[in-house]
Write a structure and sequence with these properties.
Blueprint: E1 6-8, E2 17-20, H1 22-31, E3 39-44, E4 48-57, E5 62-71, E6 80-84, H2 88-100, E7 105-110, H3 121-135, E8 142-143, E9 147-148, H4 149-154, E10 160-165, E11 172-173, H5 174-179, E12 186-191, H6 199-206, E13 211-215, H7 223-237
Parallel strand pairs: 1-3, 6-7, 6-12, 7-8, 7-9, 10-12, 10-13, 11-13
Antiparallel strand pairs: 2-5, 3-4, 4-5
Bound molecules: S-adenosylmethionine.
S-adenosylmethionine (SAM) binds near residues 165, 166, 191, 192 and 197.
């Protein structure tokens, strides 16, 4: 089963035949060298995951017949990652790895010291889908449009608590903070830019009762490393961390 290619398909997978677009048909024919009669797995968070068989595959389209449901629909309630925008390469890798590590949603933000012009959300969406296909998630996380830190906090859902990774100032070790976390609650992990948060930003965040300021150890980690270290620690400390792969 594990070698059967997994394809994230937009729209309802309700049974019968599913039409695959030209891009997917190209990938199946020319990259994965598949044809009619071959098995695939089709999934999305709204419909779940299905075993399917290719019944038609041409240059312009494909058709797959849904055989049986493998997984129920659903979304992981992993933490949001609120990360200051960083350069393209590290950001692409960060998104890919964050999906693998169970992130719930990804929220790029612009802070005082952000030195990145633009964030291509469409490209990050495609990276998140491909990562979900690879790591056996059925729910590629949403990637929000980038906004400033102040805008993000001004519209913050007050039931979602925050672990703020701060390379300076008073903090408690993340491991200690995770020891007291209610994983049934909603959480977010905030990470600053390569240049770090400005003092005023750290003070504004630390003053918010939803925020726990955490440290990630003695070394100054790159922003992408810090985000992935915090996500990994969160997942491995949570009940999700006790689920073995392919048990779901
Ligand atoms: N330029 C900053 C400096 O030299 O102080 C370092 C910023 S660091 C490259 C990028 C972000 O990663 C920080 O804003 C923070 O969110 C996080 N980070 C890095 N190392 C950390 C640590 N040891 N503890 C907590 N957060 C850390």
């Amino acid at each position: 089963m594990s070698r059967v290619p997994r394809l994230h398909i937009q729209g309802s997978l309700a049974g019968g035949d599913v039409t695959l677009d030209a891009e997917t048909a190209h990938r199946l024919r020319n990259v994965l060298r598949l044809g009619p009669g071959d098995a695939v797995r089709l999934f999305n968070a709204e419909s779940g995951e299905f075993a399917a068989t290719l019944v038609e595959l041409s240059k312009s389209r494909g058709v797959a017949r849904l055989d049986s449901r493998l997984r129920e629909p659903g979304r992981d309630a992993g933490p949001w990652l609120v990360a200051a925008a960083i350069k393209r390469g590290p950001l692409d890798t960060l998104v890919e790895k964050a999906v693998e590590l169970g992130v719930g949603e990804i929220h790029p933000i612009v802070t005082e010291r952000t030195n990145v012009e633009r964030v291509n959300v469409a490209r990050l969406d495609a990276i998140a889908v491909s990562a979900a296909e690879q790591c056996e998630r059925i729910d590629p996380p949403a990637i929000a449009m980038p906004v400033t830190l102040r805008e993000k906090l001004a519209n913050w859902p007050r039931e979602r608590r925050i672990l703020l990774c701060a390379e300076a100032g008073t903090s408690i070790p993340l491991a200690q903070a995770l020891g007291g976390v209610d994983f049934a609650a909603s959480w977010a992990i905030i990470v600053g830019p390569e240049g770090g948060f400005a003092r005023a930003e750290l003070e504004m965040l630390a003053a918010d009762p939803l925020v726990t300021v955490v440290g990630l150890g003695p070394t100054i980690l790159r922003a992408d490393t810090a985000a992935l270290a915090a996500l990994a620690a969160f997942q491995l400390s949570s009940p999700r961390g006790r689920i073995s792969p392919r048990a779901v």
